[in-house]
Amino acid sequence: MKKERTFLMIKPESVERGNIGEILGRFERNGFRIVALKLSKLSRERAEKQYEEHRGKDFFDDLVSYMSSAPTVSIVMQGENVIAAAREMAGITDPKRAKPGTIRADYGIDVQRNAIHASDSEKSAKREISIHFGQLE
Ligand code: IDP
Ligand code: MG
Questions:
Q1: CB 115 within 8 A of CB 13
Q2: How far is CA 70 from CA 30, 116, 131, in A?
Q3: What residue segments make up the domains of the chain, in order of their start?
Q4: Is the CB of 117 under 6 A from ligand 1?
Q5: Cα–Cα distance measured from residue 38 to residue 71, given in angstroms and rounded to the nearest whole number
Q6: Is the CB of 69 under 6 A from ligand 1?
Q7: pLDDT for the residue 80
Q8: Distance, CA 93 to ligand 1 centroid (Å)?
Q9: Which of 97, 91, 85, 82 is nearest to 116 (CA)?
Q10: What's residue 79's pLDDT?
Q11: What's the CA gap between 33 and 51, in Å, rounded?
Q12: Mutate which of 14, 54, 63 to test ligand 1's pocket (most atoms within 8 Å of Cβ)?
């Protein structure tokens, strides 16, 4: 078991609908610890950086507009195997197809407004933490 850090983002619709506490609570109850936390409205530039790998896809512009349209919560979460665990807890991209009990199944609306972002690898986690928090302790 490896102590890791991952980057999570609670997406605009979940912030608007008052689901921040519910979503963060799931991580805390699973033994993970918040090491950085920020509520902010992303600039277009920062949202583009976050989703750089999807540039050129048909949903990219819409996704960037959406993610920079209203406040989001950026989180660095720490714990054993947290990168894979957070992806598991989030569920697959489309909330309608995500496993019951996952965050996306419970709180997501559609494939774009799917409640949460979670880094998909150690490399992505490092890159995303630095985009949103710069250098952390
Ligand atoms: P992931 O968040 O499960 O890793 P990705 O394929 O990396 O999914 O896509 C990043 C984000 O882009 C998704 O979480 C979702 O908000 C959005 N997205 C992905 N595919 C589509 C799509 O087909 N239509 C609209 N939005 C999409
Ligand atoms: Mg992804």
A1: yes
A2: 28, 14, 18
A3: 3-133
A4: yes
A5: 10
A6: no
A7: 98
A8: 6
A9: 91
A10: 98
A11: 25
A12: 63
CA distance 7 to 62: 22
Tell the residue number behind the tokens 């992303």, with chain if given: 42
Going by alpha carbons, the residue nearest to atom 18 of ligand 1 is 112
Rounded distance from Cα 137 to ligand 1 centre (Å): 30
Q: Which protein residue's CA is at the shortest distance from atom 9 of ligand 1?
A: 93
% of the chain residues with pLDDT over 70: 99
The residue ranges of DSSP E strands in 1-137, in sequence order, are 3-10, 33-40, 72-80, 116-118
Q: Confirm whether pTM is higher than 0.85.
A: yes
Q: Confirm or reject: Cβ of 22 under 6 Å from ligand 1.
A: no
The alpha carbon of 119 and the centre of ligand 2 are apart by a number of angstroms equal to 7
For ligand 1, whether the C-beta of 112 sits within 6 Å is: yes
Does domain 3-133 fall under CATH 3.30.70.141? My reply is: yes
Task: Please report the pLDDT score of residue 2 as a whole number.
Answer: 77
- Residues 136, 76 contacting (CB under 8 angstroms): yes
- pLDDT tens digits, 58-97: 999 999 999 999 999 999 999 999 999 999 999 999 999 9
